[in-house]
Amino acid sequence: MGQSLSASFRLRIQQKTQEKIEQKERRRQDRENRSRQQDFNNNNNNNGDTQYDNDMPTSSTSTSRYSSQPDLSTINNDIPSAPRRQIDPNKNSILPSFPTKQRSRVAKKFMARSQTFNNRRDIATNEQHLAFNRSSSEDRTLEQLRNPDHVYREAMESIASDDWEQKCSGLNLLQLLIAQYPDTITQNLHQVVLVLIQEVKNLRSQVARFALSTFCDMFKHLKRNMDIELDLTTKAIIQKSAESNEFFRSDAEKCLQTMVDNVTLQKALQALIAGGA
């Protein structure tokens, strides 16, 4: 059991632990630096206010840079006016004149561009309408998710079925609930974990991998709510990683990595050690 996980995964766990420790130390140093910088800025502001108070003029008749009235005597008001353009009264228009044939060509090009723009707009509108044409199964799923308790019962009944396709369908509903209604799963967390552990041991590879993927979603969305169930889940996942199937080992390591990234790190390490990693 101790050799079931790869050395690279153990190295990632050690690196993750070291990163957590370094992050805490950096946050502490940043807080101290910000506090010192704030004190330094406050002292500079107080000193600057005192200096400016000493530089203010004492007499209202004195002329200095603090005077509120600017000196306008040096401004030259003799600004030359711009010459106005003369328009020839003999010309009917100031716009350039085009021959009749050239005007017709310009009009045809404009009409062609307008038609092309209208066609593109129609295509975009049609594509937009097509994007909203969902299948009936998707509409049924959205309608079901409005009642999460009913969906939860249906998912558990499907998982309890002997048909592996029904099991996969139930696990799919369970993943939708985990993503959109995590509170419903949290209320029934222990029951869900026990069911998934049984499905991880399923001889049908599709069902077992689907169960591992569901565990990944639980770690991702429920986060620290999974702390109380780490011992059971970690042991089952590590046992699955000991199998010779490369896909199972890859899925198990991915699931454990997701667990380490989202749950409490100390509890994750304790569960890994207790599980034989």
TrEMBL record:
Residues 1-98 are annotated as: Disordered. Residues 17-37 have a biased composition (Basic and acidic residues). Residues 179-270 form the CLASP N-terminal domain. One of its GO terms (cellular component) is cilium. Gene3D superfamilies: Leucine-rich Repeat Variant. Residues 48-57, 69-79, 89-98 have a biased composition (Polar residues). Residues 58-68 have a biased composition (Low complexity). One of its GO terms (biological process) is microtubule cytoskeleton organization. InterPro entries: ARM-like (IPR011989), ARM-type_fold (IPR016024), CLASP_N_dom (IPR024395). One of its GO terms (molecular function) is microtubule binding. Pfam families: CLASP_N (PF12348). This is CLASP N-terminal domain-containing protein. It comes from Rotaria magnacalcarata. The lineage of its organism: Eukaryota, Metazoa, Spiralia, Gnathifera, Rotifera.
